[in-house]
């Protein structure tokens, strides 16, 4: 059954999704060229993949509606089904009113045409008259902030310029229903705020907005209701705060279950070797000293390193390295670098390195520990990948990069 786009003054819903499923066919021996298709024929090893299955929800007119879920949960597929880019394999979708979509970066733009020409083209596709397009053009250009480049072919635009123009066109073409995917994350901080301010204006004007985003903090302040998708199925639909809380609880529970190296202890036979040995390590709360299942951006955490010596050791230097799960080294800290001399130690000791207002952005990190002598030239012990722990953001914001740098801007 197909998606339908109708205009209705009687229904109180802008969008109605009834038992919608979308199936894709995946081929393990995919033909990548025309020659392969002619010589080898049609791919034989195929399997079905249901991107969404039996999804139902309604979006009231004049509301801001959110779709959340992990990557691959079916959010973007659902948005493409509503917009008509995909046709549902099963079920029906009804959209009541003029619909505009900002789903993929630069979707609908002709690369050889200028920004101004693409504004006219998109307006025509949306069914606007020349007079309506002309009236909106200057406002679109001003909002996008790329007037200097508006007469250049869009193939020369940066990704940021693409998304600025694409969003500006979508929201200024007087849509009754606006679909917005995660592409807003491409814009800079100023433009993102500008976008959300404009979405608030559209909301007050009675427009219907459907948003897909991983920025849970932004959605919580913008959406009236949310549907949480999990592996193509509806997990929960309801008030924004309730659904986000349930979603985060599941994410946190699954993340904690994957964390196998929040604390680590070496075997006694391993510790017995050497003048100084690392016995164990853990991620702890710096106040209660209890083990943490995760760290949070902006909240203090500590790394405890348990040492033992078989003879006095003068001024050891304990170095802790943080590595992101994707590979890059993020930072290294040590007591010598911080000007802390432990003096001569002997026996069992606990070294605690406290990170005030943890700057690490959400992600998973590994910890490597090295201990050097007081000169920094001799390695007394080292333990690679001793810990692995997740960092979360309470507000749901993901951020870009690895650290949140404390920064102050001034202009004179």
N-to-C order of helices and strands: EEHEEHEEHHHEHEHEEHEHEEEEEEEEEE
The percent of residues in helical segments reads 10-25%
Distance between the termini: 62 Å
Rg over alpha carbons: 27 Å
Shape: elongated
Q: Largest beta sheet, briefly?
A: 6 strands, mixed
> What is the tally of beta strands?
21
Biggest sheet: strand arrangement: 6-7-8-4-9-10
**Number of spatially distinct domains:** 3
CATH architecture of the largest domain: 3-Layer(aba) Sandwich
Overall average residue pLDDT: 82
The CATH topology of the largest domain comes to Rossmann fold
Sheet/helix structural class: alpha/beta
CATH homology-level superfamily of the largest domain: P-loop containing nucleotide triphosphate hydrolases
| Portion in beta strands | 35-45%
Name of the level-1 CATH class of the largest domain: Alpha Beta
Helix count, DSSP H or I runs of 4 or more residues: 9
Q: List the uncertain runs.
A: 1-9
Structure description:
This protein has 412 residues and is of the alpha/beta class. The protein folds into three domains: 3-97 and 176-255, P-loop containing nucleotide triphosphate hydrolases (Rossmann fold), CATH 3.40.50.300; 104-164, no CATH class; 263-392, Distorted Sandwich (Coagulation Factor XIII, Chain A, domain 1), CATH 2.70.50. 25% of the residues lie in helices and 35% in strands. It is built from nine helices and 21 strands. The protein has a six-stranded mixed β-sheet, sandwiched between helices. A five-stranded mixed β-sheet has the order 13-21-20-16-17, with no helix packed on it. It has a four-stranded mixed β-sheet with strand order 1-5-2-3, covered by helices on one side. Helix 3 crosses helix 4 (130-144) and helix 4 (130-144) crosses helix 5. The longest helix has 19 residues, at 240-258. The chain is elongated, with a radius of gyration of 27 Å. The termini are far apart.
């Amino acid at each position: 059954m197909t998606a339908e786009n109708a205009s209705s003054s009687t229904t109180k819903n802008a969008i109605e999704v009834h038992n919608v499923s979308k199936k894709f066919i995946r081929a393990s021996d995919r033909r990548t060229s025309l020659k392969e298709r002619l010589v080898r024929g049609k791919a034989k090893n195929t399997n079905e993949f249901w991107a969404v299955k039996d999804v139902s929800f309604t979006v009231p007119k004049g509301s801001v509606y959110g779709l959340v879920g992990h990557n691959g949960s079916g959010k973007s597929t659902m948005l493409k089904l509503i917009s008509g880019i995909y046709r549902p394999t099963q079920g029906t979708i009804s959209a009541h009113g003029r619909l505009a979509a900002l789903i993929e970066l630069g979707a609908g733009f002709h690369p050889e045409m200028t920004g101004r020409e693409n504004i006219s083209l998109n307006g025509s596709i949306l069914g606007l008259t020349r007079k309506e397009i002309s009236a909106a053009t200057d406002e679109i250009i001003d909002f996008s902030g790329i007037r200097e480049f508006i007469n250049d072919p869009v193939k020369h635009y940066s990704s940021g310029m693409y998304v600025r123009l694409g969003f500006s066109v979508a929201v200024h073409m007087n849509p009754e229903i606006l679909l917005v995917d995660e592409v807003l994350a491409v814009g800079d901080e100023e433009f993102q705020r500008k976008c959300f301010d404009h979405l608030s204006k559209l909301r007050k004007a009675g427009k219907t907005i459907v948003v897909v985003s991983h920025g849970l903090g932004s959605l919580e302040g913008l959406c009236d209701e949310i549907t949480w998708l999990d592996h193509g199925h509806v997990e929960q639909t309801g008030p924004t705060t309730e659904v986000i809380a349930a979603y985060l609880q599941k994410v946190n529970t699954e993340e904690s279950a994957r964390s196998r190296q929040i604390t680590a202890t070496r075997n006694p036979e391993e510790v017995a070797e050497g003048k100084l040995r690392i016995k164990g390590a853990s991620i702890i709360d710096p106040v209660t000293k209890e083990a943490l299942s995760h760290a949070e951006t902006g909240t203090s955490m500590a790394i405890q390193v348990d040492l033992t010596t078989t003879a006095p050791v003068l001024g050891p230097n304990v170095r802790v390295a943080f590595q992101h799960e994707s590979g890059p080294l993020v930072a290294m800290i040590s007591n010598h670098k911080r000007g802390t001399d432990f003096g001569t130690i002997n026996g069992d000791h606990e070294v605690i390195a406290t990170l005030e207002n943890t700057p690490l952005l959400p992600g998973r990190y590994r910890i490597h520990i090295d201990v050097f002598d007081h000169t920094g030239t001799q390695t007394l012990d080292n333990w690679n990948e001793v810990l692995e722990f997740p960092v979360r953001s309470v507000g749901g914001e993901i951020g870009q990069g690895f650290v949140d740098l404390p920064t102050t801007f001034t202009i004179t």
